[in-house]
Design brief:
Blueprint lengths: L8 E4 L9 H28 L6 H29 L4 E3 H34 L4 H4 L2 H26 L9 E2 L6 H5 L7 H33 L5 H29 L8 H25 L2 H29 L1
Parallel strand pairs: 1-3
Antiparallel strand pairs: 1-2
Helix pairs in contact: 1-2, 1-9, 1-10, 2-3, 2-9, 3-5, 3-7, 3-8, 5-7, 7-8, 8-9
Protein name: G-protein coupled receptors family 1 profile domain-containing protein
Membrane topology: Multi-pass membrane protein
Main location: membrane
Length: about 325
């Protein structure tokens, strides 16, 4: 963790500058968190139970839902605790662990989206050979590659950040251990280290985005050559949900991690990070469920089974107590 570090804990100020809004924010974020968990778990259960959804596209969607659920669990419970607590301290190891999991899962999300774009290209370019090309083994290998890439990149970021010397400054102007607010406390943060951290962020965001755009360039070139307007519409409709999620995800993430920083942007960064950590995981399952008929049918079945299960359990308990 760095031999010259003299700080053993940080103070997460978070939304302390908005004392009158903290209870309101707690209620909003709490219900958003519950909704995120319910929506993503519903998607995973629907894909697991519906054999029609046992294809590569839904396999990646299930992986994305799981990864985003874990991302919110890394950030939101701690944020909710700090909104109600007077003590907002986080130890140095806890801060490093939070940063590691957040960035490894965030990078994993980016590269899963890149894998999903490749899956859509394969489905449109070679529809007859698609089941042979996108096998379970191939999907598993791609998912493992996204996970390993995320872990390696995040580990490098954490090792660089937490080998800095933090001297006496220990107040983080954020609600979690993000890169910029943590390194702003360091005494020996050099231009070279700044460029290395920017390169890792660019590798994840720009690298995965370039892979997605390459896939869609090929997809568009194939679709525009289709003679049937119905065929073109069907091909584009299979990509619409993925494109919507990509625009939401990369719009917020790129604004936070790739734009030039200034010293007065801490509150702006914090509000944008709030949308990225709460709004994006909330919108993704909504987009996929609203724009996908197969997913809508599967979710209705899951909700129907849940609605039938609870009255059955209630009546069973009533009989056992009578």
């Amino acid at each position: 963790m760095g031999n010259h570090t003299t700080v053993s804990a940080f103070l997460l100020l978070g939304f302390s500058s908005f004392p009158d809004l903290q209870r309101f924010l707690f209620v909003v974020i709490f219900f958003s968190h519950v909704t995120i968990l319910a929506a993503n778990v519903s998607i995973m259960v629907a894909i697991k139970l519906n054999h029609n959804l046992h294809t590569a596209m839904y396999y990646f969607l299930c992986g994305l839902s799981f990864s985003e659920t874990c991302t919110t669990l890394v950030i939101i419970p701690r944020m909710l605790e700090d909104l109600l607590s007077d003590s907002k301290t986080i130890s140095l190891p806890e801060c490093a662990i939070q940063m590691f999991f957040f960035f490894s899962l965030g990078a994993n999300n980016c590269f899963i989206m890149a894998a999903m774009s490749y899956d859509r290209y394969t489905a449109i370019h070679k529809p007859l050979h698609y089941p042979l090309l996108m096998t379970r083994k191939m999907c598993f290998q791609l998912m493992m590659a996204t996970s390993v890439t995320g872990i390696v990149v995040s580990l490098c970021i954490v090792l660089i950040v937490f080998n800095l010397s933090f001297c006496d400054a220990s107040t983080i102007q954020h609600f979690f251990c993000d890169i910029t607010p943590v390194v702003s406390l360091a005494c020996d943060y050099t231009f070279f280290q700044k460029m290395v951290l920017l390169a890792f962020s660019a590798f994840v965001l720009v690298g995965s985005f370039v892979l997605i755009m390459i896939s869609y360039v090929f997809i568009v070139s194939i679709v525009v050559k289709m003679p049937s307007a119905k065929g073109r519409y069907k091909a584009f409709s299979t990509c619409s949900s993925h494109l919507s999620v990509v625009c939401i995800h990369y719009g917020f993430a790129g604004f936070i991690y790739l734009r030039p920083k200034d010293r007065d942007s801490s509150q702006e960064d914090m509000l944008m990070a709030l949308t990225y950590t709460v709004l994006t995981p909330l919108l993704n399952p909504v987009v996929y469920s609203l724009r996908n008929k197969e997913m809508q049918i599967a979710l209705r079945r899951v909700l129907g089974n849940v609605c039938r299960f609870f009255p059955h359990m209630v009546s069973k308990r009533a009989l056992s107590t009578s």
